[in-house]
UniProtKB/TrEMBL annotation:
Species: Sporomusa silvacetica DSM 10669
Gene Ontology molecular functions: myo-inosose-2 dehydratase activity
This protein's pathway: Polyol metabolism; myo-inositol degradation into acetyl-CoA; acetyl-CoA from myo-inositol: step 2/7
Source species taxonomy: Bacteria, Bacillati, Bacillota, Negativicutes, Selenomonadales
Keywords annotated in UniProt: Cobalt, Lyase, Manganese
The protein's name in its UniProt record: Inosose dehydratase
Length: 298
């Protein structure tokens, strides 16, 4: 059983408009997106490119719909650029999220990342950090963690396909190399299964360090195609590798049970990017909300 006051349900705007491929859902407006999130029964959202940049305007639009901001993605370049080039935009991002009332900041290292390269096969060409790059990443993340804590916030690290922290082994290395009081983990079910990992094993190891959860499911038949046809990450998304929880191959019952047993506190954010022309975002948001209701007390 989750504590309903401490576990909240959000959904990411990426199902309405995909910032990685703005042609997917380019016609969907911000207002439609947040209205449909509320209609489907969610009370939180992450931040998309169409959201007003002005915090007052954003708050007003969200308050009207009973939605708040759970977090937002931040790209770090700690392995490839001087720390200051990550720190300056991070502070701006932190302050924006602080004003919006968020408690966690999603960070993903984009140094050498191939996640945005549409023609680069995601399994063959993912980066592997050198020892020096791991060191820069770990020390840089700890510094970002301290900057977040100045505002009583925390960073949550997003392991991600096509990046240097994708596999369970890479997650282990990052967790071992960083201070658990400064660097927390974001648990994204879809990225783990895409990478061939066992999400239950990752969860069992890091349940106490997880402060944010992305719920995305995987269509197994599409994953087989992605692997055999050597697709890129973005081609895989377009082909429909991701879907909402309950609509794919992931068994969420043991995952929810483990999180509940560890008194998980924070957000569950449904994050299922797929082509909105093929997968109606409202329909899939409702489907996800019903599935979570069926499998949990939320
Ligand atoms: O959290 C995420 C943010 C997206 O931009 C990303 O590509 C997606 O797959 C994800 O998990
Ligand atoms: Co995610």
């Amino acid at each position: 059983m989750f504590d309903k006051n401490r576990v909240l349900l959000g959904i990411a705007p990426i199902a309405w408009t995909n910032d990685d491929m703005p042609e997917l859902g380019g016609e969907n407006t911000f207002e439609q997106c947040v209205s449909e999130m509320a209609l489907a029964g969610f009370t939180g959202s992450e931040v998309g490119n169409k959201y007003p940049k002005d915090t007052k305007a954003l708050k007003k639009a969200l308050d009207l719909r009973g939605i708040c901001i759970a977090s937002a993605w931040f790209s770090s370049f700690l392995t490839t650029k001087p720390f200051e080039e990550t720190a300056a935009p991070f502070l701006k991002h932190r302050d924006f999220l602080y004003e919006m009332g968020a408690k966690v900041i999603v960070v993903a290292e984009q140094g050498h990342s191939i996640q945005g390269m549409i023609d680069t096969p995601v399994f063959d060409r993912k980066p592997h950090f050198t020892a020096a790059e791991w060191e820069s990443l770990a020390r840089g993340l700890e510094k970002l963690g301290k900057l977040a804590q100045e505002k009583d916030m925390n960073i949550v690290y997003h392991h991600h396909m096509g990046t240097g922290v994708q596999t369970a082994t890479e997650i282990d290395k990052l967790m071992e190399m960083t201070d658990p009081k400064l660097v927390y983990l974001l648990f994204d079910t879809g990225h783990l299964v895409f990478s061939g990992e066992n999400p239950q094993q990752v969860l069992a190891k890091y349940a106490k360090r997880i402060k944010h959860v992305h719920l995305k499911d995987i269509r197994q038949d599409i994953l087989v195609k992605v692997t055999s046809e050597k697709m890129s990450f973005l081609q895989a998304v377009k082909a429909g590798v991701f879907t909402v929880p309950g609509d794919g191959m992931i068994d969420y019952e043991p995952l929810f049970a483990e999180l509940a047993n560890n008194n998980y506190e924070g957000w569950f954010v449904v994050e299922a990017e797929q082509d909105p022309a093929l997968a109606n975002p409202l329909e899939y948001a409702i489907k996800a909300r019903e599935y979570i209701r069926e499998k949990t007390n939320l």
